[in-house]
Amino acid sequence: MSRKVRLGIVGFGNQGSQYAALVADGRVPNIDVVAIADTDPGRRDLAAERHPGVAVFDDYATMLESGAVEAVVTTVPHYLHPQMGIQALERGIHVLVEKPAGVYTKQVRELNEFAASKPELTFAIMFNQRTNPLYRRLKQIVESGEIGAIRRTNWIITTWYRPQAYYDQSDWRATWGGEGGGVLVNQAPHNLDLWQWICGVPEKVFAKAGFGFRRNINVEDEVVAVVDYGGGATGTFTTATHELVGTDRFEITGDAGKIVVTDSKTAVVTRYRRSEQEINASIPTEDIWKMTSDQFDPNEYYTHETLEFDTAWGGQHATVLENFAANILDGTPLIAPGSDGILGVRLANAIHLSAWTGKEVPMDFDEGEFLAELNKRIAEEGIFPQRS
Predict the structure, then answer these.
(1) Whether residue 100 has a cis bond before it, omega within 30° of 0
(2) Are 348 and 331 in contact (CB under 8 A)?
């Protein structure tokens, strides 16, 4: 390849160090990591040890002003993503933000609006699960109409087990002021993105959440949300971090078929030979008993297809990084445009607001009301400054 994108990594923690290793191992052929920034001296020393020859900075702004980088990926606490994204775009630098795009829609909207004013720059988000071939195939099936109009969706994703020691690692973790929430902003953003990417954006949501339900934390460690898509279609989302043996089961029911995904690896796709409405209208009274007897022939009504894909851990992140660089180099369409990041943040905000108020919340909720409720909880913690 004649040219590679000169990338700076902001934050050399778990994600930032992983991305640097992916590039160093040759898994992202169109990127050179030329700079790493971290405020922690220990992490800077580790970055210099692992990646000799890469410039290491103690300040993000200094790295941006150095002229060394033409693009950055932000692997920092959630509240900083919008601010750092804008700082880079202001200087003509392309941005890939880690998920989630931010903590509340007001700050993410500001990032999106600023990015829209810089159409010559690439703005993307690390929704690496969009590269998962299983979910890409399911999106194709739903969009093609193979299972008809969606009637109901359900996702139980409780495989996010975290012991108390996980939360006790640092003062900012699992706080409203430091992290911005619990399972919805830390573990489940990919699920919230995929759910809407495949099934569509709901109109409103009603939610129940447990705040410090099974862990000594202030934020949510269990959530049950019911969404309304309009037209009678509904969905549920259940997630938790305290189930030692968790469940990952995703169902999409349409009027012409059904999809059941197990463990994010295997999907059984059922396609009706006619729509359920047509099947229903065709069954005479005298044949009702056949539906529950050994004379029932499923092949008369539907077919099954099993889909299973094997994807390497880390490969999906590398694919998003490569796609980000390809968009910069030759305009290859983005897998996950940065502007899409607001969708998951908005749904998480609506779920929080519903759980806090006990009311059903529309997707066009009052951003000021949400921020006021968030700041109330930040003030009660008394650790971090309130947000604006």
Answers:
(1) yes
(2) no
Domain boundaries, the chain: 5-129+314-338, 130-309+344-381
Q: Within 13 Å and on the Cβ side, how many CA atoms surround 304?
A: 7
Q: Tokens representing 15?
A: 């994600």
239-294 residue pLDDT tens: 999 999 999 999 999 999 999 999 999 999 999 999 999 999 999 998 888 888 88
Specify the DSSP class assigned to residue 69: -
pTM (2 decimals)?
0.95
- Token output for 269: 């796709």
Fold for the domain defined by 5-129+314-338? Rossmann fold (3.40.50)
Is residue 170 within 8 Å of 326, Cβ to Cβ? no
> What DSSP string describes 176-227?
TTTTS-SHHHHTSHHHHHHHHHHH---SEEEEEEEETSSSS-SSEEEEEEEE
Q: In the numeric block, which tokens belong to residue 180?
A: 């911005």
CA gap 159, 378 in Å, rounded: 28
